[in-house]
Design brief:
Length: 108
C-alpha cells in the first residue's frame, strides 16, 4: 500500500481502514459486533453477494467469525469479541464467485 492511499482513506464510521486495489475496507470492531464497510472511491459497494471470514489475533487469543451481508455496503458478525488496541485482524472478503481478497487491519 503506498502512503498516499493511507492519507486518502479516512474512517467514515470510526473504525480502521485498509485500501486494496482502490477498494476501501473499514472495520468497526466492538465487543458485541464486527462490521466491515466496503466503498470504492467513496461510493458504497453492494455487499449482497459478498461474504467474509475474519480472524482476530491478539497476544493470547485467536477468534474467527463469519461476516454476512447487512444493509447497504456492510458485512457484519454478531457475537462476543475480545477487542483491544494492537489486535490484528485478517479478513478474507469474497464477492460472488471471485477469488477472496485478503485485507489486514490493526485495531487502535
Amino acid at each position: 500500500v503506498c502512503s498516499s492511499d493511507l492519507h486518502d482513506a479516512k474512517p467514515q464510521h470510526g473504525g480502521v481502514v485498509s485500501v486494496i486495489k482502490d477498494i476501501s475496507y473499514e472495520l468497526v470492531a466492538k465487543a458485541d459486533s464486527l462490521t466491515l464497510y466496503v466503498t470504492d472511491h467513496d461510493q458504497p459497494v453492494d455487499t449482497r453477494n459478498a461474504s467474509a471470514t475474519i480472524t482476530l489475533l491478539s497476544a493470547s487469543d485467536k477468534t474467527e467469525a463469519k461476516l454476512l451481508p447487512a444493509e447497504g455496503n456492510q458485512l457484519r458478525a454478531q457475537g462476543v469479541f475480545n477487542i483491544q488496541a494492537g489486535t490484528k485482524a485478517v479478513a478474507i472478503v469474497k464477492f460472488g464467485d471471485k477469488p477472496g481478497q485478503s485485507v489486514r487491519f490493526v485495531l487502535k
